[in-house]
Please model this.
Amino acid sequence: MGEKQSNLMDKIVSLCRRRGFIFQSSEIYGGLDSCYDYGPLGVELKRNIKEAWWRSMVREREDIVGLDAAILMHPKVWEASGHVEGFTDPLVDCKQCKRRFRADEVEGKRCPVCGGELTEARQFNLMFKTFMGPVEDEASIVYLRPETAQGIYVNFLNVLNSTRLKIPFGIAQIGKAFRNEITPRNFIFRTREFEQMEMQFFVKPGTDQEWFEYWREKRMQWYIDLGIRPQKLRFHKHGEDELAHYAAAAYDIQYEFPFGWRELEGIHNRTDFDLSRHMQYSGKDQRYFDDATRERYIPYIIETSAGADRTVLTVLADAYDEEEVEGEIRIVMHFHPKVAPIKVGVFPLVKRDGMPEVARKIEQSLRRYWMVFYDESGAIGRRYRRQDEIGTPYCVTVDSQTLQDQTVTVRDRDSMQQERVPMDRLVEYFRERLD
Ligand code: GAP
Model:
């Protein structure tokens, strides 16, 4: 990582903490490695991202429905899915300092920290285990799910039988997943607890390649619509040696993070692997009956699997900017209005002459539709800068002219241009620009 880019990560992490986007988990106890908490602005940003995903994947389509499955599932699920056997990373230990590393991340035979000798690689399962009920024995082991996908597969028949959906159709879910990563790193990029936004699309075998291509394009476009710069996005096709145990073909959507090009989302052709395995392990027929052709078959699955936290990091990294304005550095987050935590800042120019009362009224009227922030303290320039730093697209200022002609100034975050808008037209004005 170049110095400039590592600086950029430091700046993002520091802004996130300073302004209440993301904090280290359990900070007052020294923090818990690789766990993070979303603060008042971070939770809004993440919710907006998840809502944009849900809207485009579920609400705006008639062929995809939602699901919210439990995190704890029957342990057999993870035998059937292949995770008990195959969800592992090769790990090596340093014989001297006892540190652990992923075998593919250490070159040669010597510890990158102390230079000690490393053990042979052995497989380490990434699933978190816990116990269900009062007895802590083998029989009560359950896992925290390492992906949300399995909750969808085991509900395939429930959804099919309770709706009137016909293949092709999809089931979407947003939820937490857990992986005991050996080397979590890069802030919220790779953590042990994270959130996935996954969609499983059930198709007739033979049409899978076509749907795979469809979803690949569709998902790439979603990031562009979220305001991510297209030149920072690309596809990466998995070679034979990279494919997960369930996939016949896979593409990653990658983003150029400050630490390099990395996976943001995976699009996989999972074939009939998952449903066949669940049919075998549960003894329940998972075949679909096509009443038009009278055929019975196990559907193929095209999966789109995105990380909510990784998308937050992408949006933060892509939006961060520093500009020189009148000899000072302005930090500005160029969030797309759809994800910006606060949509409009409302200020009285000064704290007298009835301006705060008018500004409060405007705040109330806008709050019905959008997340707004009222601020009357400090110089107006400083208040604008504070909103720039958290990516608020617009600020409304009530000044002495407002009291005469009922207009306010609306300032645009990106251009810093101001225009006068009649107070009673503000809702319409923002509707055109924010929704
Ligand atoms: N169901 C398929 C699946 O889970 P994956 O490629 O292992 O596929 C999908 O994960 C996405 O989940 C990744 O592209 C990433 O965005 C997110 N993800 C995976 N592991 C993560 C971690 N440790 N921390 C944060 N996000 C993670």
Remarks:
- The chain has a mean pLDDT of 95.
- Residues 147, 149, 179, 181, 190-191, 194, 196, 198, 263-266, 303, 305-307, 309-310 surround glycyl-adenosine-5'-phosphate (CB under 6 Å).
